[in-house]
């Protein structure tokens, strides 16, 4: 094989690996919001801090290195914001809940209201800024809901 | 409930640093292998090809990491003596078992290339080298360690038992 072909093939290899990496990276920290509803709580109330407006419920597991990174970020947010709690559970301790809530990767973080309803979920590792935005949105929508109730 | 953090974790940047060196070496291996991918000639000729020698050396390094553990890998030593003193302390530590298991996966992939090339299978070395390159590149550049993910999946499926902490 001549050197031009070899170079092109090597470039293609690096390109494919980069695409795969970018795809993975793009899926990390993806946020999905749940529709508001009044059905029974999604999450058992024992797992959340019912005195807090919002509980950041982190699903972790053994040998998950980004779970530790997420723990630092979520812990900091809960310390900085009164009314926000951070709870962490191991998926091995809660296999049924993990299945019921379709937690398919760790870390997964659920933003849970004090009534046990999921506001949104963050799949994979995220950064403090994105989590902060999502927390702010959750608090706003909680406030909007309670204002509506007052009217 | 900190089952996922071990008291004596490793700096996650260590294995990534090692993966960076490995990925460059693997890209060179694949390049050398591509210039003559036929795997022709006698066994001794095939074993003397630069691409083969390089892949064999990388296979030995993977075996070292898998057997001695990621902490005792030569690149880990290089990282802790040359690189780490120049960096800020890590934000978090990670358990050493997943990257050690990833070394085993890397060993299995690269030893497949070694065996295929010795057996005279065309493109055997190139394909195994490319697969190993993609994995080490993803680890080095994006921080995605496929072998570690596999380890965590196997532990969660309880196929392999975690060593008692």
Your description of this structure?
The complex is a heterodimer of chains A (151) and B (165). Chain A has one domain: 3-Layer(aba) Sandwich (Glutaredoxin), CATH 3.40.30. Chain A starts with a helix and ends with a helix. Chain A has 151 residues and is of the alpha+beta class. Chain A contains 4 helices and 5 strands, in the order αββαβαββα. Chain B has 165 residues and is mostly helical. Chain B has one domain. Chain B has 7 helices and no strands. In chain B, α1 packs antiparallel against α3, α1 crosses α4 and α5 packs across α7. Chain B is globular, with a radius of gyration of 17 Å. The chains are: A alpha+beta (151), B mainly alpha (165). At the A-B interface, α1, α2 and β3 of A face α1, α6 and α7 of B.
Helix share, percent of chain B: 55-70%
Q: What is Rg of chain B?
A: 17 Å
Major sheet description of chain B = none
Instruction: Name the beta content range of chain B.
Output: under 5%
The figure for the number of domains of chain B is 1
- How large a portion of the residues of chain A is in β-strands, by DSSP E? 15-25%
Mind telling me the CATH class of chain A? Alpha Beta
Distance between the termini of chain B: 14 Å
Rounded mean pLDDT score of chain B: 90
Radius of gyration of chain A: 19 Å
Q: Name the strands of the widest sheet of chain A in spatial order.
A: 1-5-4-2-3
SS field, number of helical segments of chain B: 7
Secondary structure class of chain A reads alpha+beta
* Overall helicity of chain A: 40-55%
For the largest beta-sheet of chain A, the strand count, sense and barrel status come to: 5 strands, mixed
**CATH topology (fold) name of chain A:** Glutaredoxin
Question: What pair of chains forms the biggest interface?
Answer: A-B, 35 and 36 residues
**Apparent shape of chain A:** elongated
